[in-house]
């Protein structure tokens, strides 16, 4: 109750500060209750609803930090980590090493004769990996839909794809994210270790959990839904069988729409590889004309709402931290479509 | 004057809150004026002086944010970007694409017959890159020194290296960094676009710049020294000649020691690939027994102080933002020795 | 004179043996003087004019071997090697090594406790490279032409490309090549170390060299044209400036057509990265409707004739070996469009 | 009988031609019956017993070709292919493609305005793979043994390894192989589809098969032992379970020693990933002081005899081709320890 009130105050301030002629709901610039966002930010926009973030909204989010405590929501990645099988495998390879440099003898400045009498050396690594592994944020260039392969805002793969990734809405266009975050501990609310395979999280589940947690989703909030899957990640996500058993639980279109259109969620995330339950039921698939990932289509393509994946929510749940400042920055790699191997922060 | 006072107040609070029996200088747990840190955190420690961060210090740093304004200090990376030639090259390769998936015909669920009548598809990328490119933080496992190839805290490459990176002090052990940051605009103070090749930044330069900026380095501060090199980065760091011309400017051992031992800097960083000027003069090289990167040896191996590289300080300088909350999280890739392609934030 | 006679005899035998109802020129199945080949091998063919090879032709080629002497025509490749800048860079990375395995401690069977008391270990490498580096054979799926992106035999990139290379006419469809080979030492004939930049080898050059060498191109012959460029390759092709200076010399459309249509050459190759001189003169470019590599379009797309690149012809020239059995097998990597880092053999 | 006689004649000629003062067995330069080879080629040698090949031996091998028929012994490789799990995974990635180049718009010469009115484009691929996949030849730098990590001829990993592979006895030092080859169809002799898991091929098995095939191993012969495993490879070795079930069958030390020391085999190969049965019985392991791959230690390190792996012997067996000319060239990639994704030829 207390924290909600405090945040509503902040939002009021925000609405005042950001006042820019738009008569929008909940202090947002472009969000409409019952409609959400969509392609409302102009024909050149690559940012989507993250445009809602302002100095005032960031300041309000940071005001939620009263203890200085930080939670690292990133899951560590290595060659053994669970990932969607369609992605490329990953290797971290010692590229230069003290023993290797000494044996290789290719760099004069590393030798005693070259002045390196103190024997300085270094480790560095070559990384081969996918832009969709471990803790991720899906960018608005990730998913396309329809015969023209359109992604967010009508950009097409033909025009804006290429050999080296996408040239519109790649991750370098995702602004730093500083926003209010809310944990929805669905697994905790259902009193299970982790939700079962393909379980569809309902609106009632979310409302029930929020009520039990005494916290609400207000417009502009990052919503993180806990299935419990990340509890099986361990050191490096090596137990593919166990993780895979729960990784297919998540929200469907009904909950996604409710969160975006009725509650104004800024981003939706969870502790699985794909946020949405799968495979989709026929109604969900057909709602976007037939798709294997209708929630992705709805959020990324139609609404311009980013998706957060494999956020480690275990410690937040254990500590019953339900409201926090959520801070996330992506890799600055041009062309990539998702922030990958990230470490989002929850600060309180 | 104003900002310094405010921060000193915060530091006082911090010292009080963190009071833990150590009689240390400047509210720090283990820092000694005239000595800095070193291997003082116990034989198993992999964190170094970032152990100084506490709830109180993070809270104090966040209190510096009064406007909610965010600066992205990351430099975008792609196949053309400038890097130290000893590192592996980088490629971002479209791994799956709408056109490629359709031509490849290897996934039944992507076909109309498989239910995908709405034609959903996706872009993803395979990344081949080095763990030391674009905006970085050097981890304590990066540099080794001496005949036993020791890195920080006496861990040796023999014992803790391997085929897949390092197994002590890799980047997954670097905690989220939330700390007070200070910009030292050396190029601005010297009234040049960028410092010349191999220029050694002196203590006088730093003191002069700090005085002109009316800000000070207090114990626990992240210090970012601006050479001006990042102004030539542009879209992707493609102008190797221009960047290379200034990239060798930086601090030497004298300034590094002064910042760590006299001022208690938590981390040292700049807008170049290596922080320190190079090649080192004989005195600097010999001070660590003969080395091509004595400042790296001093900071990473001997002091347990992390190094920040290629932080984009241009907008901070242009806006005369000299004090801020610095927030940085690394990639969560086991074995890697440096956070790579990062986007640190300066918040004020 | 002697060798020519011997080969003509072989060809006669071949024509007799291969006699199969086609009334074709020079003992070939489908070649027509003045026309060459083209898409003459049926709508599903992925092999092109290498279909001309038969047991008899291979046997005839092997009969040229009278001494058992072997020439390795491959140029060694590593991270420093010259390549066309549009291709991906290459790294050979120690993936597992005795020191790395011992440090990594991830494989119980490598430890003394696991029975490895004799301390067996191994080196292996991860390779990141392009399918168009060092000594190559361009496959018929390499080049496309026209608005439909057609390659040989009308296969289109839309239908037969994909995320993982090409699915028609990839290198796995290239049969083992065992054929008569002829060296045309153009640089030797012109009495230069290497042909100058962009030099177009003329029909007169080739006829002159063949005459001086007392050897002829008969139908079914692999023709290797020496520019002298490979003499600058050395250990690993590291002198990019020197190699690049001569690498643009080669044949144009006139010589290519003469060799294929008048002489029945089975394949055309040289000691450069691209066989043809470049950039093309307007007449050559316009002959295929406007192209930056008209000889590639002509040979690979229109004629179904493979191209050999960066064959090391230096020792053959030094030893004045002008006729030989040419043996080449490609990598067996599905999807790749060129045999790469190969070692063709010339046997005599 | 006939073929044996013919080859013995050839060997006699060879012995005469190669006569060089050594009084060695079977026409070999350095082989001793009951002892084999070993480190007998001088302290700088990186070639091992492939030094036995001469113009005369190559010529004799090629004389076995009487029909001009060629067998491709390579197994095609892609991202799905079976491999030893300790090796790095493989990806073939479309690096440049007609659609990608057009979308990427980074190369002026590919545009109509740049002269490319005929719309020429190309496919190329980036390859990430291991140097030990699909059809291979193990180089003499692959395996090390003992506390000093010695490989063939006493070269040590410390001295001759490094970050970029090995610098002694890498694959570029393997000469082109042209030699007499003999198939030993053990699976056929035992009348099974494929040998069972961990089956140790005995000397009696080999002698029985050779007798049934009416062919013998003479000094200088490449010996290929068929377990039948390759019959399950199919298009790309995707059925890991089935392949893995038979892949552990092979020879032990007894058969290896007999073939090398009593018969003078030039190389030993099979149609599995590792030639030898596994895991080794205690006696075999202890014979080299305790090892998980004693046959590799014996052949590569102690004898200087190369190993051939995953040679596809199915068609040879089906056609009952037991004696042939074996021709193999490796990739020319410096530092790599095994020829990989090769296509050896059997010619008859």
UniProtKB/TrEMBL annotation, chains A, B, C, D:
Q: Which SUPFAM superfamilies match?
A: Putative cyclase
Q: What protein is this chain from?
A: Cyclase
Tell me, what is one Gene Ontology molecular-function annotation carried by this entry? arylformamidase activity
| UniProt keyword Protein transport present | no
Xref: PANTHER family: CYCLASE, PTHR34861
Record Pfam families: Cyclase
Q: Does the keyword Signal apply?
A: yes
**Signal peptide as annotated in the record:** 1-23
Q: Which GO terms describe its biological process?
A: L-tryptophan catabolic process to kynurenine
Per UniProt, the keywords (alphabetical) are: Signal
InterPro entries for this protein:
KFase/CYL (IPR007325), KFase_sf (IPR037175)
């Amino acid at each position: 109750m207390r924290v909600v009130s405090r945040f509503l105050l902040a939002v009021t301030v925000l609405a005042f500060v950001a006042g820019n002629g738009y008569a929008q709901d909940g202090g947002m610039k472009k969000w409409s209750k019952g409609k959400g966002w969509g392609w409302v930010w102009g024909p050149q926009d690559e940012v989507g609803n993250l445009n809602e973030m302002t100095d005032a909204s960031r300041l309000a989010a940071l005001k939620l930090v009263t203890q200085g405590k930080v939670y690292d929501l990133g899951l560590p990645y290595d060659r053994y980590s669970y990932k969607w099988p369609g992605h490329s495998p990953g290797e971290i390879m010692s590229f230069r090493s003290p023993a290797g440099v000494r044996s290789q003898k290719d760099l004069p400045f590393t030798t005693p004769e070259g002045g390196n009498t103190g024997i300085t050396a270094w480790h560095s690594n070559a990384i081969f990996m996918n832009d969709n592994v471990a803790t991720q944020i899906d960018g608005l260039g990730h998913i396309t839909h329809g015969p023209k392969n359109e992604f967010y805002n009508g950009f097409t793969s033909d025009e804006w794809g290429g050999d080296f990734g996408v040239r519109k809405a790649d991750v370098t266009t995702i602004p730093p994210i500083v926003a209010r975050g809310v944990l929805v501990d669905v697994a905790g609310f259902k009193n299970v270790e982790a939700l079962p395979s393909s379980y569809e999280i309902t609106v009632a589940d979310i409302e029930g959990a929020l009520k039990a947690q005494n916290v609400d989703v207000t417009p502009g909030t990052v919503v993180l839904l806990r299935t419990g899957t990340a509890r099986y990640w361990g050191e490096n996500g090596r137990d593919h069988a166990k993780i895979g058993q729960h990784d297919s639980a998540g929200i469907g279109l009904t909950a996604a729409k409710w969160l975006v259109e009725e509650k104004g969620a800024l981003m939706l995330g969870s502790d699985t590889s794909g946020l949405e339950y799968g495979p989709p039921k026929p109604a969900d698939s057909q709602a976007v004309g037939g798709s294997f990932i209708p929630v992705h289509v709805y959020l990324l393509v139609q609404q311009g709402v980013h998706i957060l994946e494999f956020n480690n929510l275990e410690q937040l749940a254990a500590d019953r931290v339900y409201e926090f400042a959520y801070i996330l920055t992506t890799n600055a790699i041009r062309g990539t479509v998702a922030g990958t191997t990230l470490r989002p922060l929850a600060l309180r």
